[in-house]
Amino acid sequence: MIELTPDLDANKPVPLYMQLYEYIKNKILQGHIRKGTALPSIRVLSKHLGISRNTVETAYGQLIAEGYVESKPRVGFIVKELDEELQPKWVPPKIIHTSIEQNIEKPLYDFRYGNIDTSHFPMKVWRKCMNEALDGELEQILWYGERKGDTGLRKQIADYLFQARGIHCSHEQIIIGSGIHQITGLLCQLFSQKTDTVAMENPSYDGIRTVFANHHYRILPISLEEDGLSLEELEKSAANLVYVTPSHQLPLGMVLPIGKRQKLLKWAEKTKAFIIEDDYDSEFRYESKPIPALKALDTPDRVIYLGTFSKVLTPAIRVSYMVLPHCLLEVFQKKFYNYNQPVSTIIQKTLYLFMKYGYFERHIRKMRHIYAKKQQTLITAIREHFGDNATIIGEKAGLHLLMHLKNHNNVDELVIKAEKAGIKVYSATKYWFGEIGKPPAYVLLGFGGMNENDIRDGVRLLKKVWFS
Predict the structure, then answer these.
(1) 3-class SS at 126?
(2) N or C, which terminus of the chain has less Cβ within 10 Å?
């Protein structure tokens, strides 16, 4: 038996029984209520809709009189079969596609930054951990969970940060969020967009820049030198927040040296400013051991550390986190006392178990080896096919690198030529902002989501497309 929920209005000039009759008739004609379907009894429907039995009985009587419904003893009211000639043809709504959607075809080779290797995701052990999480107490997994995030998961993250990044912090300082944009949005609300100014590396990640812009912050571009952020420019600025990627600058790939890190921390202490450290892919360093995070040196407690599981595990779980200085914890509590935790408690419990049993660290080691091979394949292919015509930038870490072709200063033209041949490469221009003139013609090549054969074939075809 189906449930009928028409929108009946006693204020309309049309009687209620007629509104109900028209509703059921139209549903039958449109094919939404099919032949043989049992309608609710008069008593059930009158109670469900809060109308009199006489109203329902009169509507049903009209449907019976017109042949849409029949009343069967001990069965109820049954929808009858209509002659096909009398049934209007139901035409599904026409979906209008934009020209962009119509022209989208899967490329032969896609060097997109942000793609990861899904073929090596440890699905078997992830499923095992999820099943164990689902066997937990229902109150823990079927509710919103703790505002800051699952305590067990935050403790695991704190342990991991100490071992892998040299960061000493309490789990109480860690806030779990659903992606780096969402958690940066929370961060923006800890300060005042009316009085605060954020400085950002130029170039820098445009996604985070958009979050600050959407929260109406004044954004100051700070130039990059060969070894990273220009501290001279920063010190002359009016910024009291600065966003940096010190372990692997995005997109240029340089590492902020210890001398500059110390000066940056002194600047923050002196000016009472805060440093936002985005450590987005620190796990994947190929030429040396991972560099300790800036937060590991943060004795003044002025660094807000951002981390994510998107690159090292998968963006699908939507888990990121930040480590707040102690002085901001009370502000966080006051600002967000009425907020609920945005990440699924089941996912948090699963990730907690995944880390607790050591699967996370094993997965990192495995993926570091796999990505190192892919990166070396890409570098070797570029050198083989482009030789001295190409300069490689930012190859020490991460899941992307930049390539600059000699005598090719129109990066948009290179991107278009490649796309016509079925190859997706990307301009790095979007990372630059402010009054800088024309950004360098860098092509961004991500390799995380490609296999080694496709990397080699893609680069070989790029050479043919760009130099034919």
Answers:
(1) helix
(2) C
Distances (CA, A) of 395 to 143, 299, 313, 375, 378: 44, 31, 21, 8, 10
Is 5 inside a domain boundary? no
Other C-beta atoms lying within 10 Å of the C-beta of residue 94? 5
Helix, strand, coil tally for the chain in percent (to 5): 45, 15, 40
* Integer-rounded Cα radius of gyration of the chain: 30
User: Residues 343, 368: one domain?
Assistant: no
pLDDT digits (tens, 9 = 90+) for 207-222: 999 999 999 999 999 9
Instruction: List, for residues 97-150, the tens digit of each pLDDT value.
Output: 544 444 457 889 999 988 999 999 999 999 999 999 999 888 788 888 899 999
- Is 289 in the same domain as 417? no
Question: What is the domain count for the chain?
Answer: 3
CA angle at 166 for the pair 162 and 171, rounded to the nearest 5°? 35
User: With contact defined as beta carbons under 8 Å apart, do 412 and 427 qualify?
Assistant: yes
* Pair (354, 369) in one structural domain: no
Q: What is the pLDDT of residue 142?
A: 85
Query: For residues 294 and 274, what is the distance between their CA atoms, to the nearest angstrom?
Result: 12
Q: Are 262 and 298 in contact, with CB atoms under 8 Å apart? A: no
Distances, alpha carbon 445 to alpha carbons 209, 224, 424, 431, in Å: 21, 21, 9, 14
CA torsion 265-270-273-277 (nearest 10°) is 0
Name the residue range of residue 33's domain. 16-86
Q: What is the CATH number of the domain that holds 389?
A: 3.90.1150.10
Angle between helices 345-356 and 123-134 (to 10 degrees): 120
Domain endpoint, select from 295, 325, 358: 358
Which of the given ranges, 91-105, 387-401, 445-459, has the highest pLDDT on average? Answer: 445-459
Q: Reduce the DSSP state of residue 355 to 3 states and report it.
A: helix
**Global confidence as pTM:** 0.78
Q: Is-contact 279 321, C-beta < 8 A? A: no
Amino acid occupying residue 336? F
Amino acid at 90: W
Q: Mark whether 415 and 275 lie in a shared domain.
A: no
Read off the tokens for 225. 């030198």
Residues 141 and 238 in one domain: yes
Report residue 77: phi and psi, to 5°: -95, 120
Residue 235 pLDDT greater than 90, yes or no: yes
Asked whether residue 80 falls in the same domain as residue 135, the answer is no
Q: Is 388 left (phi over 0), alpha (psi -120 to 50) or beta?
A: alpha
Per-residue tokens: 184: 């940066």
Cα–Cα–Cα angle for 445, 257, 368, nearest 5°?
Answer: 45
Residues 272 and 343 both lie in one domain: yes
pLDDT at 281: 82
